[in-house]
Amino acid sequence: MVLGCGLGGLKVSGLVSKQLGRSGTVTIVEPRAKIPLPSSLPWLAFGWREPNSILKDLKSLANRKNVRLVAEKVEKINVAGRIIKTQSHEILYDKLVISLGADLAFDEIPGLDKYSHTMYSLEGALKLRDAIKNFQGGSIVIGVCRIPYKCPAAPYELSLLMEETMRRARKRVDIQLFTPEPHPVPAAGSVIAKQVERLVASRGIKYLPKTKLVKVERDRVEFEGGSALKYDLFVAIPPHRPPRVVVEAGLTGESGWVPVNPQNLATRFDDVYAIGDVTSMETPHGHAPFLPKAGVFAQGQAEVVANNIAVSLAGKGEMRQWDGIGSCHLQVSKSESAFLRGSFLSNPPRLEFHPASRKWYLDKVRRERDWLS
User: Fold this and answer.
1) Alpha-carbon distances, residue 127 vs 41, 47, 75, 116, 207 (angstroms)
2) CATH among 3.90.1150.10, 3.90.1010.10, 3.40.50.1820, 3.50.50.60 for 2-102+242-321
3) pTM assigned to the model
4) pLDDT tens for residues 44-71?
5) Dihedrals phi, psi of 202, to nearest 5 degrees
6) How far is CA 139 from CA 46, 56, 158, 196, 238, in A?
């Protein structure tokens, strides 16, 4: 059984279904009929995509003979009884994969939901698109509200694309980017962080690290320590938290998220695995205490979990271990992107940063096309 069908859930469901064939059934619990590609949400916000062009329909997966799609929300996870409860079903499982992602927690900061925009949801990206289109100039503040959050490069990419968009539209703007982090993409280390900082500074964007948001008002954001910024447009990376059902099931640990074995994604409960943003995974190096939340990790983890579940049920094949390898595009303009790739669980991490070029932008377009196909 797979709970949630984002990038990781979609991948693990498809692979297990294919590998098991007639010997097993994959039950997916997911209320959405179509899933947006998260990395394309900025393109939607800037008017470079339409909503239907970044949505993947679950129909083709659900139509497989060994797949059952329950189009409801998970209401309760009972790991002791191996039962999942939805609005109208109680379903027994043999193997469970939790890929419920992270919830956006606007309510954690006063005024955030009322006054901010975001690109971290389909609805948010559409509202931001209208705000960008109608913006006539002034002060733009982009902020990371809390850590951890999905896609560590996202606020920097958003800032760079916002600067280019406003410059091309000949709208005079002042862009400031704040974050509670000490420097950009901490998991990548200080060398790559400096490269990202220089890139942001070269475009006239003021960068404010170690800055924690405490309150949002109609035209200003207030920070811990009493400082504040005025804004005409505020775009937030909102706080993230694990889904309520995961917490209530006792699956979370000291980090607040679901701790897993880095090699096989197993939780401390028998036959229960977790992948993607809902997890916490300690890193063996000092750049960041936990692995960042990113779709590419969820997909890599899904491949390992799918293989190992199929091997354990079929009694043949070889178990695999996840290697912690991931990559990330940092788009800097409408037609160019930088690229980060490496092994994030090695000590020290083996990472490489490729400067912006059209090559990496086209690679991002290709990945979008492949995922949607």
Assistant:
1) 12, 11, 29, 10, 25
2) 3.50.50.60
3) 0.95
4) 999 999 999 999 999 999 999 999 999 9
5) -65, -20
6) 18, 36, 15, 22, 19
